[in-house]
Design brief:
Elements: H1 3-35, H2 38-59, H3 62-76, H4 78-115, H5 121-126, H6 128-146, H7 150-198, H8 209-220, H9 223-243, H10 247-281, H11 286-313, H12 315-323, H13 331-346, H14 348-357
Helix pairs in contact: 1-7, 1-10, 1-11, 2-4, 2-6, 2-9, 2-10, 3-4, 3-6, 3-8, 3-10, 4-6, 4-8, 6-7, 9-10, 10-11, 10-13, 10-14, 11-13, 11-14
Length: 360
Amino acid sequence: MSRAKEATTQTLVVLFGRSLGIVASLASVLFLTRYLTARELILTQVTSLVSELISTVGDLGFGLAMQRRLPALLESDVDEANGLIGTFLLASLATITVGSIIVYLLAERIGASFLKEPGGGNFIVLAIPAVAVQIWRNQLFVLMQGTRSFGRYSVLSLTYQLCWVSGSIAFYFAWGFKGFLVGLAFGAALPCAYETWKMRRFLVMPPASGKCVQFFRLALGYYPERFVNFAYTYADQWVVGFFLKDKQALATYFVPRRFFDQLLALLEGFWSVPTNALSRESARGPDAIARSLASFKRVFLYIFAPLTAGLLASSYFLVDILAGDKYHDAVWSFGILSFFFFFSGVFAPQAISVMVLARP
């Protein structure tokens, strides 16, 4: 099997796992819009936004360095590859620890910034374990992408969503919204713990301090791009959250945005396979890169064009299913976000080729 065909197959494997996970996530959206108040829905979304922000700030560029440099290192220099992995894991643990402390200290301010009223800090504190688990899940995804463990990537994509949804809903009916926040962490921790065990052969100790500094310097070259990616994906939610004062209007925006967060996660899963493949193909010359890129362009167009058309055609119907009459004004936001999703998917191969081939 050629590398282009191999990468296409891996892309479809990731698609399958992510797609099943989206089905579970849709069940979560149905639950959130029907059982939680606008205030509680906003706090739930804030949990995800804070997790992604901490992941970005604490990443230090290691996520992109792992995706783009680790595949080649695993084939050419295993010791260097283990050094990069060990330094990445050290940075990950530091991110979770420091990030959890910062959220605890700023919990009241974070809650008040989105709710425009005091009283949300206690719920933010309860969500800290869920924030920590989500950060570790993101790091596991990076490790799986860098080591080409796409089967495990798909399994975690699916089981995380299933356990996250079932755990949070079960705890909600037992203990209310506080139980819901605890259930987010408990349900998500189970698949993360299992996949950590399955990936244990890659959980190596960090190298000597001198080598750690070397890998930190390598990763920092990708750090600005990591912030650009974060802004591209999440900046609208932070801006709307800070400046939109009406809680009902903010919750109405978050309903379709939460749905498209899952679709963007699907796109992110797609990115991992071409990024990995083009990183390996770069050593074989421009002709090999051109062939792989042409294959990826066709695959992405065939997937995202009909998917976006279906989303636009059924936007009114989908919003009615997701939110009912409670958030029916979300139809316009849903349509606009559909176009954003289409262009993000169709032009992804070009963006990947620039990111992989350009120097950090």
